[in-house]
Structures are given as C-alpha cells and as structure tokens.
Amino acid sequence: MTIKFNTLFFASSLMLLSIEICIAAFLTEGFIRHTFGDFLVVILMYCMIRTFIHTKPIYIASVVLAFAFLIEFLQLFDFLDYLNLQNHRLAHIILGSTFSFSDLIAYTLGVITIFLIDTKISITWTP
C-alpha cells in the first residue's frame, strides 16, 4: 500500500459526490433515491479512498463493503437514537435510519461494479 494521488479517481469522486448531493437534495422517494443512490455511494467511497491510496482493488472493495454493511446493520439498532441524532436531517441522509435488505444488495452490486472497472483500468492504463 502506498500513498499516491490519482487524478482519475479524484475527478470521479467529485462527479459522484455532485450526483449524490443532487439525489439527496431533490429526490425524496423512488428507485433513484433509495436504491441507485446506495449503489453510487459505495462507488463514491471506493473512489475517494482510491484517490489517495494505491493498493490491490480487492482490499479497498472489501473495506468499503464492510463499512457499508456495518452502517446498514447499525440501523437495525436505532443507531441515530443512541447518538441522539434522531432529529438531525443530515444524519438521516448520511447514515440512514431504516434497515433494508435491498440496500445490502445495492452496496454489493456497487462494489462489484467499481472493483471490475478498477481492475480493468489497472490492467489497461498505467499512469
């Protein structure tokens, strides 16, 4: 593992962050908000990490998926109530408030997607 700035993943992070902010700000329900947003958020996390850390893609993919699953499972135990953040809109948007099995599927598919893309980029493009 080395610390190395990657402009491609940095640009991807900025683009994905903009999309996620738009989803959070303008959509309150539906497939894009509840499923596609979860799919994109793990890709965003992966790209953010990959912007600064150069290591095997499987390591980053595993960490991102484990973190996403942890946050989702914490929702089963009213984690926001425990932190006394149940009335904070931003906490609800970032951490979520309800457990959903479909979110776990979206996270898994998102991580698999970015892992395959990163693996393909790493093979065909060397900065």
What's a concise summary of this model?
This is DUF2809 domain-containing protein. With 127 residues, the protein is mostly helical. It has six helices and two strands, in the order βααβαααα.
Characterise this structure:
Pfam families: DUF2809 (PF10990). This protein has one domain (2-124). Helix content is 75%, strand content 3%. It has 6 helices and 2 strands; from the N terminus they run βααβαααα. The protein has helices at residues 7-26, 31-52, 57-74, 79-82, 89-95, 101-124, and strands at 2-3, 53-54. Strands 1-2 form a two-stranded antiparallel sheet. Helix 2 crosses helix 6 and helix 3 packs antiparallel against helix 6. The radius of gyration is 15 Å and the shape is globular. The chain starts with a strand and ends with a helix. The model has no long low-confidence stretch (mean pLDDT 90).
Taking all residues together, what is the mean pLDDT? 90
Q: How many domains make up the coordinates?
A: 1
Helix content: over 70%
Q: Which class of secondary structure composition applies to the elements?
A: mainly alpha
**Mind summarizing the main beta sheet?**
2 strands, antiparallel
Number of helical elements: 6
The overall strand count is 2
Binned strand content = under 5%
Task: Please give the structural blueprint.
Blueprint: E1 2-3, H1 7-26, H2 31-52, E2 53-54, H3 57-74, H4 79-82, H5 89-95, H6 101-124
Antiparallel strand pairs: 1-2
